[in-house]
Specification:
GO terms for molecular function: fructose-bisphosphate aldolase activity; metal ion binding. Its EC number is 4.1.2.13. Keywords: Glycolysis, Lyase, Metal-binding, Signal, Zinc. Catalyzes the aldol condensation of dihydroxyacetone phosphate (DHAP or glycerone-phosphate) with glyceraldehyde 3-phosphate (G3P) to form fructose 1,6-bisphosphate (FBP) in gluconeogenesis and the reverse reaction in glycolysis. This protein is of the alpha/beta class and about 400 residues long. It has a single domain, classed as TIM Barrel, CATH 3.20.20.70. It contains 14 helices and 14 strands. β7 and β8 (about 225) form a beta hairpin. The longest helix is centred in the C-terminal third of the chain and has 22 residues, at about 370-395. The chain is globular. The structure holds zinc ion. Zinc ion binds near residues 7, 218, 222, 267 and 306.
């Protein structure tokens, strides 16, 4: 089996002065808000509040993660059950969470029976999921980042649809619907990859959306994208490439970005010994950029870590030390959700074989065992428990207060 690369995301620290760039609201309103504003979370900047975090609040949150040495779990979801499990977990571990929609996950929320011509189901489902989060996130009392996952060149109409929704939301509220989008153009030549990213970042910056871009290739297979045959040299990003992207994207006024760089990371879970992680690539990239810029900051880039499932805690924490502010989690939470449902069925197996009749008697009704909420809740609880463990690995526990 050929395993590929790890992806990290970096964000532009320097380029971000969103008070100006994201400020569509009047300065008088901003001043009034500042005057009465109190911190919602003792350990976080005052901009970060419970609920969906966008714009300056998001860059402040990611800068806090980088400075404090933790990474936020970025979790793929497929509906309200997994979305709520994410927020439940975040409330339990006392940290932020990134709720992540894939194109397929968005389509699933719309409904698999709906024609996905022109990505219409993916767009509608992703927006519906985002609106669910906007409506309920505050009740969980944690910062929630609304993010979308890998979008290759052919899938850009999906992002175009989401961007339109964010622009409409921004016109009404001064905030985008989504906090950030990933564009994964790593299949394209570097110059084309970054040129397309730059053109999108120009649009994102106007409404306060952060860009996550990918350099190199994350190996393995996830959500219909199979990179398990990619040449291994593409699995390791070069510092020069990271600097090129940083330099280009920093030219966008108010632009904020993170970088998914490849350092041997792989989507999916594999037997030990099959993944050759080289997170030193991240350190080398930071050093290279710092020298080029001549800046004080020894971690100018914010990286994100794709394909972390199955990585050792040592490797994960080493990568966090190199400026990783988010790690994607999908495979492990997929298993956890199933394992919760599996455990429920095993525990109540004899009560789940018909609507009537169980070990307590042939006439006994089983309605209170086969109500779908019970099995789904078992999945939610198992997923939330797995995410608390992930947050421990990412040092994201008790980072709010
Ligand atoms: Zn990924």
């Amino acid at each position: 089996m050929k395993l590929a690369v790890t992806t990290l995301f970096i964000g532009s620290a320097a380029a971000f002065s969103p008070a100006a760039s994201f400020g569509v609201r009047s300065s008088a309103l901003n001043m009034a808000e500042t005057a009465t504003e109190t911190k919602a979370f003792a350990k976080l900047p005052a901009t970060v509040k419970p609920g969906v975090v966008t714009g300056k609040a998001l860059t402040d949150l990611l800068d806090n993660a980088k400075a404090q040495g933790y990474a936020i779990p970025g979790v793929n979801i497929v509906g309200s059950n997994s979305i709520n499990a994410c927020m439940e977990a975040a409330a339990k571990y006392g940290g932020p969470i990134m709720v992540t929609f894939s194109k397929g996950g968005g389509q699933f929320i719309c409904g698999k029976s709906v024609d996905n011509k022109n990505d219409q189901a993916s767009i509608a489902g992703t927006i519906a999921g985002a609106k669910h989060v906007h409506e309920v996130a505050k009740l969980y009392g944690v910062p929630v980042v609304l993010h979308t996952d890998h979008c290759q060149k052919a899938w850009l109409p999906w992002i175009d649809g989401l961007l339109t929704a964010s622009e409409e939301h921004f016109a009404k509220t001064g905030e985008p619907l989504f906090s950030s989008h990933m564009l994964d153009l790593s299949e394209e030549p570097l110059e084309e990859n970054i040129a397309i990213c730059k053109s999108y970042l120009e649009k994102f910056a106007k409404v306060g959306i952060l860009l996550e871009f990918e350099l190199g290739v994350t190996g393995g297979e996830e959500d219909g994208v199979d990179n398990s045959d990619v040449d291994s040299s593409r699995l390791y990003t070069q510092p020069e490439e990271v600097y090129y992207a940083y330099e280009q994207l920093s030219q966008v006024p108010g632009g904020a970005f993170t970088c998914a760089a490849s350092f041997g990371n792989v989507h999916g879970v594999y037997a030990p010994g099959n993944v050759d992680l080289q997170p030193i690539i991240l350190y080398n990239s930071q050093k290279y950029i710092q020298e080029k810029l001549g800046c004080e900051d020894d971690k100018p880039m914010k990286f994100v870590f794709h394909g972390g499932s199955g990585s050792s805690v040592e490797d994960i924490q080493y990568a966090i030390g190199a400026g990783v502010v988010k790690m994607n989690i999908d495979t492990d939470t997929q298993w956890a959700f199933w394992d919760g449902v599996r455990g429920y069925e095993a525990k109540y197996h004899d009560y789940l074989q018909g609507q009537i009749g169980n070990p307590e008697g042939p006439d006994k009704p089983n309605k209170k065992y086969y109500d779908p909420r019970l099995m789904l809740r078992a999945g939610e609880e198992a997923m939330a428990a797995r995410l608390v463990k992930a947050a421990e690995d990412l040092k994201c526990v008790n980072v709010l207060n």
